Amino acid sequence: MEAREGKKCIQRQRQVPIFFVLLGIALAGSESRRYSVAEESESGSFVDNLLRDLGLEIEELAVRGPRVISKGKKMSLQLDRQTGDLLLNEKLDREGLCGPTDPCVLPFQVLLENPLQFFQAELQIRDINDHSPVFIDKEIILKISESITPGTTFLIERAQDLDVGSNSLQNYTISPNFYFHLKLQDSPQGLLPQLVLDKALDREEQPEIRLTLTALDGGTPPRSGTALVVIEVLDINDNAPEFTQLLYEVQVPENCPVGSQVATVSARDLDIGTYGQISYAFSQASEDIRKTFQINANSGELLLKQKLDYESVQTYTVNIQAIDGGGLSESCVVFIQVMDLNDNPPELTMSTLINQIPENLQETVIAVFSVSDSDSGDNGKTVCSIQDDLPFFLKPSVENFYTLVTNTALDRETRSEYSITITVTDLGTPRLKTQHNITVQVSDVNDNAPTFTQTSYTLWVPENNSPALHIGTISATDRDSGTNAQVTYSLLLPPPRDPHPGLASLVSINADTGQLFALRALDYETLRAFEFRVGAADRGSPALSSEALVRVRVLDANDNAPFVLYPPHNASAPCGPFPGPLGDVSGTGTLSHSYRYEVCLMGGSSGTSDFKFLKPIVPNNLIQDT
């Protein structure tokens, strides 16, 4: 099957619906503004001042963030933000940009970013006379039979001039001679020169005539080009070739392989011998036609010489001439329509991109971009999308422009970075797509207060501690980042009626680490417990803070010896079954009341004052001496 396709492409006809999609917001102005500049103007040349058309004062211009956006990735224009002047970025070649199309108009947009606003505009490139008429063949050979009667016309090769309008080809002249004069004929292809025979030819008298054909354009000063016309006088040949049809219409897909047969033309000649032998050649063919196609001189097969591209050229008109051995000729036209295939993926052009945005903002514009597809019909229609699980959405604008916007406030503490893939898919078969990746960083806002690891802390400190003793550490964390997450600790002043107003003399705190220190030795017998509040504040703006409760418990140490309060150490106790009451022993705090005992043994071990009491009888308070 590939071999068949290599020989001949299947010709198909189809109709492609064309429609346009108007998306998004309206333009700032309904009419497109047109500016003009002469081609080949130097880069940086002044085109126009846009302040009045944009409706801006010069002081507003830089604030609005204007920029010029052209279709495609190449920018031919730039906008001076200080003056509003529209300037050229490069030299512009009208013929390279627009070819024979006149006027040559390049659309562009002026984008104001703050707030977002679009202005449609066009740049018309004026033609200058920078090309001379050129004949593709410097030598044109005509074979004319001597039997041709005066008044017969002969079409000769026309010149090509890339300029347009008055600068294009306007006239032809022929060098003085006795046999021919020049006749000019208007046609859709331009002015066609024809030689008109004034006097019968005589091969025996003059077998060859050489003339100079000059083509002139209408520029100031005019430019010209010449070709040599060589007329070979032939013997009598009274039948010219005749094509079976004068117009051939074919459709060829743009992916047709090089070397494929596009069409076959056929002509016949009633003469015999040399006069009946027909050869085929191009007639009035441009350089582009000759580069794209070739004709088999013997068979009339029109073959593809280089690949077709619908996006560059959609139709070709090929003139083919059949010439017999006697020099008589006839022409036909082959009209070739190139069929579009989906061979171009969509293009995405990024105009504005913000890689970092603060959290907690609603509907923030992340990016502004445009999409395009060089194909036609459904092949050139595009659909733009991003992942479904992201807090962003695409907002259609105008002329295939989109803005990427947040659809909700972002939370950096939940997610600090997003990777967004913009996918542009066309509607052709097979579908082609282009992807563009964007990474967005979410910057922190101070929206989280520090949080203590505990709502309250209990610290145990032995009495008689050394001053500056580290008694404990409090800790708080902040979910924010940077300075918003840097925590500073402090002691909170007690209320005026607090039972421990001297807190500042008891403890201190390290503001950076949260370490707590006892400023002086604590005494269990004086202060058994106290509590205070601590604060943790971040360094955001405004700063956020939180509090926690710290309880300090003083641990008792055996730092007091016991002593007898009553009776005096030099008193004696009466003998009898019921001794008097014994006094409280103060110092250790182990005996809280006085008791009556049946037997009391007192015997202190070495270096101690230990007591042992046996069998209590009746508890009683201390009594006074009697």
Automatic annotation (TrEMBL):
Keywords: Calcium, Cell adhesion, Glycoprotein, Membrane, Repeat, Signal, Transmembrane, Transmembrane helix. Gene3D superfamilies: Cadherins. The keyword DNA-binding does not apply. Pfam families: Cadherin (PF00028), Cadherin_2 (PF08266). It is a single-pass membrane protein. GO terms for cellular component: plasma membrane. It is found in: Membrane. One of its GO terms (molecular function) is calcium ion binding. GO terms for biological process: homophilic cell adhesion via plasma membrane adhesion molecules. The keyword Signal applies. Residues 77-135, 136-243, 244-348, 349-452, 453-564 form the Cadherin domain. This is Protocadherin beta-2. The gene is Pcdhb2.
